[in-house]
Amino acid sequence: MSNIPDFAMQVQEVQRQIEAQSDVTAQDWKDAVQQRYYDNYMNAYKEKMELYIHGGSGISGKGINDLLVFLDEQMQKMEQLTGVPADLTFMCAAGASYTGSVRDNYGVSIPVEAFKEVQERDGVVHNEKRERDYWREEGTFFEPDNGTRPGQYSNEEIKQIMDYRSQDDYYKDFKF
Amino acid sequence: MSEPSAHIRDHQSLIELNNTLEYSADSILKILEQVDSYLKGVIEALKKQMKVLEEELRAAEESLAEAEKAHSSCLASQRWVEEYEDEDGNTHGGYYTPSCNSEASEVERCREERDRCQEKYEKAKRICDDCEYEIEQYKYPGGIFYIPPPGGEKTMEDLAKEHTDKATSKMRDILAVVEKYLRYNMSTKASCFSTTPTDIDVANGSSKTLSPEEKKERFNNAIQKVIERQQNENYGSRQIADANRVIRCPRCGRPPIACICNNTREREYTREDIQIIRNDFSR
Prior knowledge:
The complex is a heterodimer. By secondary structure, chain A is mostly helical. In chain A, 48% of the residues lie in helices and 2% in strands. Chain A has helices at residues 7-28, 32-54, 64-82, 86-94, 155-166; strands at 109-110, 121-122. Chain A has a two-stranded antiparallel sheet with strand order 1-2. The N and C termini of chain A lie far apart (50 Å). In chain B, helix 1 runs antiparallel to helix 3 (152-182). In chain B, strand 2 and strand 3 form a beta hairpin. Chain B has helices spanning 11-77, 101-139, 152-182, 199-204, 212-233, 271-282; strands at residues 79-81, 84-85, 91-92, 95-97. Chains A and B meet through helix 1, helix 2, helix 3, helix 4 and helix 5 of A and helix 1, helix 2, helix 3, helix 5 and helix 6 of B.
């Protein structure tokens, strides 16, 4: 069984957030300044994130998607040499960032929303057809708007999250 | 050639774009942080396994050395038995005694075991080296004038830091101009620089500010468009691997993009910058 963390998916979520909002803003702002602004700043987000995910001549090395697949293959090769399961290697590597979940139960089908044909697909967080509400599986501390997908937040939700992010202890000395 | 007139129907929309950039850039840095910690973890975990193989190899080498020692001391203790004939006329002797065959086969067995361990160790080392190389490439900061180009990490870091700083600061400048010329806060009212709608607006049949419902609808449509594009592009070499592991922030338990722990971008900001951002949010 492969062990591929969902980093590429998460970058795609960020891409969604930026592109959707820039599309909506473009509806309200239509002039030469907007065109220049989008050309100079907004387009770079899409290009760089694509490069980051898929790689290409603009960056050295592999894109994150290929890199994660490559590392997974290497961990499996290592398993054949040492006998240490690749899953265990992955868990050691991810450390506290990986809390484990139902996906670890081998052979247990996992319900996938909508699309009937991929329902009960085995242990896959994402696929090209459909995505699961993967971030809701274990319950989290904070779910704006009853569990909106990351990457599809409204401006209110973004402000709420940014507000939470600003409340870190690090800033307690600042007086806003 | 004169520029076409400025046309901003809703200045709140610009603030929202700025908020999105701030939030997304911060999320990108959080993702990069988690990726970095994962990659370090992979190397560490592989190296721990290398230690096991190293230990195995060392043990195999020790066994081989012991076997060789036993074999050579056996050889040293051997003596030659001269050939002789017994009373029945049978020939005896003509060999060394005691026999070291078992020691020799033990040496052979240990040598094979050592070779096997050596091979495994070398294969594992190659795996570690390959992983380290790829991770180094990913972390490569880039040459002079970006030749060769930087790796993925630096590319995204630049995007989330310098580029976003420039983009948001430019947007704040634009907003300042907008407010200055309109002399009122447009965040609550519909506003338009040009007195007449543009051709595009007329063609779309929309010359007024979007209502919150319309905005929500358009936002959802835009998201659907992006998702469709991402799904359509997801084939061949651009296929996103089926991820089956969710990485979460160890502190708040949410995926990095939705993490609510400390604002990574603000760490590099001055107090004044933070104040400006917060003012933007509170408009």
